[in-house]
Write a structure and sequence with these properties.
With 335 residues, the protein is α/β, with parallel strands linked by helices. The protein is built from 10 helices and 17 strands. The structure holds zinc ion (2 copies).
Length: 335
């Protein structure tokens, strides 16, 4: 089968990914063999390709927004079987026994493992995944539309929870790609006024079309004080801007797995009046299930830019340059 691997982590311009041939994997105990129908391209893949996140396995295949069909079920699998349409997301396994797992915080498990980082992901024609960590998908979404729900959607939803947005509140969103455009729709459906800050003209257009209350450049001041804010752009320089835009008692959640350095903060200007700055780390399976149900109920509109599997490197370069509208999605069928 065809599979991309991170050959030599570095800037996308240098071509860190290589398209290779590898045997179709065999499902082990508790695992499913899944034929990839679509795989979304997430900013985390870019951080893996560029070496911002150190590799956990040599020459691993990225991709953790996989919509696929189960073709074989390994011994001991109980949830899914051949013919089922399933989603494979970022969280690929936890120990299930540490204090975080036992407290319902498996996203913080020190022994958690990830699709496309510890295990080969979906920039390929097949992959294996743990039956216990694979998701059922909501009806009403094509394979391409369902793919971005699996990380962009789930993480965006967790970021929204972590941002503590009150009902009918005022939410600021910095960066407006795959994740933000889904989280914004959930917030708007819950009655929030969503203010979007992005440098991309195309993203500003998308935000307007989805019902954002206001749309402006990344560095513009907020039109009103915010209850909550989410930083989706991996740009630490924006943290002070987000904090400054908060009302008293407001919360800024940083959604990404990677952020450039945060500049020096001023207590009075950025944090005093009980403003809160917090991170978002992966997600629990509970978050994923809750979001996927919600996505079906709200009929979220997923904006997709398609690429054939053979052009995964082009998709990543476009993502790096903010040339992707909504979410980039790879198709092994067209490639
Ligand atoms: Zn654990
Ligand atoms: Zn992701």
């Amino acid at each position: 089968m065809r599979a991309w691997v991170v050959e030599d982590p570095g800037p996308v311009a240098g071509g860190p990914l290589r398209l290779t041939d590898r045997p179709v994997p065999q499902p082990g105990p508790g695992q499913l063999l899944i034929r990839v129908l679509r795989c979304g391209v997430c900013r985390t893949d870019l951080h893996l390709a560029e070496g911002d996140l150190p590799p956990r396995a040599p020459r691993s295949t990225p991709g953790h927004e996989v919509v696929g069909e189960v073709v074989e079920a390994g011994p001991g699998t109980v949830r899914f079987g051949p013919g089922d349409r399933v989603g494979v997301a970022w969280l690929a396994g936890t120990d299930g026994s540490c204090r975080y797992c036992r407290a319902g915080q498996e996203n913080l498990c020190p022994r958690s493992v990830y699709t496309g980082w510890d295990f080969h992901g979906g920039y390929a024609e097949y992959l294996t995944a743990a039956d216990a960590y694979v998701h059922a998908l909501p009806a009403g979404f094509s394979d391409a539309e369902a793919a971005p729900l699996l990380c962009a959607g789930i993480i965006g939803y967790r970021a929204l929870l972590r941002a503590e947005l009150p009902p009918g509140g005022r939410l600021g969103i910095w960066g407006f790609g795959g994740s933000a455009h889904l989280a914004a729709q959930v917030a708007i459906a819950q009655g929030a006024a969503v203010h979007v800050f992005t440098r991309s003209a195309e993203a500003r257009e998308l935000a307007r079309g989805l019902g954002a209350a206001s749309v402006q450049d990344s560095w513009d001041p907020a039109p009103e004080a915010l209850d909550s804010a989410i930083l989706f752009a991996p740009v630490g320089d924006l943290v002070p801007a987000g904090l400054r835009a908060l009302d008293r008692g407001g919360t800024l959640a940083i959604a990404g797995i990677y952020l450039t350095d945060i500049p020096r903060l001023n207590y009075e200007e950025h944090l005093f009046q009980e403003r809160t700055l917090r991170s978002v780390t992966a997600n629990t399976r509970g978050d994923a299930e809750e979001f996927l149900r919600l996505a079906g109920r709200l009929r979220l509109r997923v904006t997709v830019t398609p690429y054939p599997l053979d052009q995964a490197d082009v998709a990543l370069a476009d993502l790096a340059a903010d040339r992707v509208s909504g979410a980039a999605v790879l198709s092994p069928l067209a490639g």
